[in-house]
Amino acid sequence: MNVENVIKGVVCPFCGCCCDDLEVTVRNNEIAKVENACALGRAKFERWNEGRIVRPSIRSDGKILETSFAKAVERSARILYDARYPLLWGWSCTSCEAQKIGVELAEEVGGVIDSTTSTCHGPSIIAVHDVGESSTTLGEVRHRADLVIYWGCNPLHAHPRHMSRYSVLSEGRFRKRRGERKMIVVDVRRTATAKIADEFIKIEPNSDYEALTALRMCLKGEELEQESIAGVPSKKFEELIDEMVGCQFGVIFFGLGLTMSAGKSRNVDAALSLVRDLNSKTKFVIVPMRGHFNVTGANEVFAWQTGYPFAVDLSQGYPRYNPGETSGVDIATRHDCDAALVVGSDPISNFPLEAARNLSSIPIICIDPHETATTSVSDTVIPSAIVGIEAEGTVYRMDGVPLLLRKLIDPPEGVSKDTEILEAILNEVRRIRGGR
Amino acid sequence: MKVIVVTGRSIAQGRSKESKFSDEYARAAATCEVDPEDLSTLGVKPGQKVKLTTSRGSVNLFASVSSQSPHRGIVFIPFGPWANSLMDAETDGTGMPTLKGMEAEIEPAAEDEVLGLKELLAKNLKERGRT
Fold this sequence. Notes:
The complex is a heterodimer. Chain A is 37% helix and 21% strand. Chain A is built from 18 helices and 21 strands. Chain A has helices at 39-46, 69-82, 96-109, 122-131, 138-144, 155-158, 162-166, 192-195, 208-219, 234-246, 256-259, 265-278, 295-306, 328-333, 347-350, 353-360, 373-377, 418-434; strands spanning 4-10, 22-27, 30-35, 57-60, 63-66, 87-90, 112-115, 147-151, 182-187, 199-202, 228-229, 232-233, 249-254, 283-288, 312-313, 320-321, 340-343, 364-368, 380-383, 393-396, 402-405. In chain A, the strands form 5 sheets. A 9-stranded mixed sheet of chain A has the order 5-4-19-18-17-6-7-15-16. A 5-stranded parallel sheet of chain A has the order 10-9-8-13-14. A 3-stranded antiparallel sheet of chain A has the order 1-2-3. The radius of gyration of chain A is 23 Å and the shape is globular. The mean pLDDT of chain A is 97. In chain B, 25% of the residues lie in helices and 29% in strands. Chain B has 5 helices and 6 strands; from the N terminus they run E-H-H-E-H-E-E-E-H-E-H. The interface between A and B is large, with 71 and 56 residues.
């Protein structure tokens, strides 16, 4: 029988926008149509079945052998239990419920749990520790913001519906039209986003800190002695700060242009400080453009479970947090970890080569719905259901608003949810420990 | 020619990133966007190959004309294992490697091969890893 079901109000499991207005048509347990999604979200739904892994596998004498779920779980638990300093990495493309079990597992095996936060907005969180954050929800921006600044980010490519749902192109209660908002982009290239802005300020690479500091000086009424700073005429900073002070509700959305370039957390320090100081003149807020759909959730869950938002070292029996030491890339680069559990992530692709190379030389257990560079070098691979398509779960949007991802179709036969896989590994580790 | 490498998300890379071994992903990520004047100075036409080298490694990529120019001296590479062949794992005490703003040398590489993902992994990981 040809059964078709249109599901409304579906939350998109791609980026940190977590758009919650998708309409997905399901026919015979397959995704038939997706409406309201951007190009990125649409691809995730329409190609959910490409490159899938459907059977667990283990590596034996250099060969990859299919195995049973129970044997894969047993082997995973043994590897983690025997490891001196395992790294539990990923977590941004799974649910908060799975992340919670991950923390429990990290504690049980005395490992480090870190999310892809380390390689996106980790420096932003470090800066928030230092400065604090004048934050908001995206709904407030939609309804109130009359000045929107995108700094070091290109939402048209990375968060394609951000502008139409939450900022300059959205219809808010108090700001109804595009003409009621000014949009400024600061970046090192005239990106697709910059092209539709009212104003584009092109700065030199690795000079965000200088540009933000120049703005802070202007705000304090200090004179800029140089003719140009960060490749921008100094007069432009004076004009920009006038715009910022003169608005009623301003927002800076910032991306990896600040966190991945020279200065890293200090760039974000300067941005947060600028926004804090602006609040003595007008209302101003700042929001990081978080990438993966539940990277914010990983920070929330790790923080409420351990006290720390990412890079949590549980090897001493209590949580330690020292990004730069206890963060995934650093641990892999130092070749400190002797095993890794990777959940919904591809560090072999996404880590710098030196770290990826070291990681590939230790036993990796990879839980993922799809084939990746990491699954191709893993010791044990356990296929998982796609969260938000084949499994339900809680996620946090980039502004910290929790939303519920839904199960739309069944996963391939024999494929389990992340929560079930992690729970099984945790129970097996406890069984090994109990029988020691 | 000396350039600064900036990595980041592109629509094409984002759309294909969950099919890592697809041709589409390789087309989206084994590429770099170069300022048209820089490309002309190099004598490289769009679609031809270039070699990028940093203090951490080198990689061959297909060059394209940047639609986001002018940005002379800046080369954009989508996130992925090709870009990460060049990047520095040093995190400066933050946990974040330097994935934007790295100095590099770019040169024509008409005779060289742009590796697919399997071949790239085999080359990059062979020293100590398993492929």
